[in-house]
């Protein structure tokens, strides 16, 4: 499990969303919905999205000013943000089972 930052404590900085860079004021960027996060997790699990792409997508909220109030969404974003981290004993720190468990916690139907 990743170290957790309180979802109600934003940081400041520049965010990237869908490939464009824009400076946002605090609270300007809406957090993703459970459906949006679930879609990225499914794409990652099914090989339709790269780990690097999923990590970059999640980083929009992890490193930005968005206030993510839903703990399940926040935890999934943390996991996605670390999707491309390598490990010393296996190719990546997290695997498809981790992504599926996070998807299951979101309780979003297919």
Quick recap of the structure?
With 110 residues, the chain is mainly alpha-helical.
List keywords for this structure.
110 residues; mainly alpha; two-stranded antiparallel ribbon; globular
Structure overview:
With 110 residues, the chain is mostly helical. It has a domain of 70 residues. Helices cover 42% and strands 7% of the residues. It is built from four helices and two strands, in the order E-E-H-H-H-H. Strands 1-2 form a two-stranded antiparallel sheet. Helix 1 packs antiparallel against helix 4, helix 2 packs across helix 3 and helix 3 runs antiparallel to helix 4. The two termini are 25 Å apart. The N terminus is likely disordered.
DSSP summary, beta strand count: 2
The proportion of residues forming helix, as a percent range, comes to 40-55%
Report the mean per-residue pLDDT as an integer. Answer: 81
Q: From N to C, what is the helix and strand string?
A: EEHHHH
Q: Kindly report the spatial arrangement of strands forming the biggest sheet.
A: 1-2
The N- to C-terminal Cα distance equals 25 Å
Biggest sheet layout: 2 strands, antiparallel
- Residue stretches low in confidence (pLDDT < 50, at least 5 long) are 3-26
Q: Which structural category do the helix and sheet elements fall into?
A: mainly alpha
Strand content: 5-15%
Rounded radius of gyration (Å): 13 Å
Shape: globular
State the helix count: 4
């Amino acid at each position: 499990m990743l170290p957790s930052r309180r979802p109600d404590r934003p940081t400041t900085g520049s965010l990237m969303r869908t490939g464009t860079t824009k400076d946002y004021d605090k609270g300007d960027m809406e957090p993703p919905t459970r459906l949006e996060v679930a879609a990225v997790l499914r794409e990652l699990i099914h090989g339709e999205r790269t780990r690097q792409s999923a990590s970059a997508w999640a980083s929009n909220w992890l490193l930005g000013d968005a206030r993510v109030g839903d703990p399940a969404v926040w935890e999934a974003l943390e996991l996605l943000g670390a999707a491309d981290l390598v490990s010393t004993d296996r190719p990546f720190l997290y695997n498809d089972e981790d992504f599926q468990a996070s998807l299951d916690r979101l309780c979003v139907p297919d």
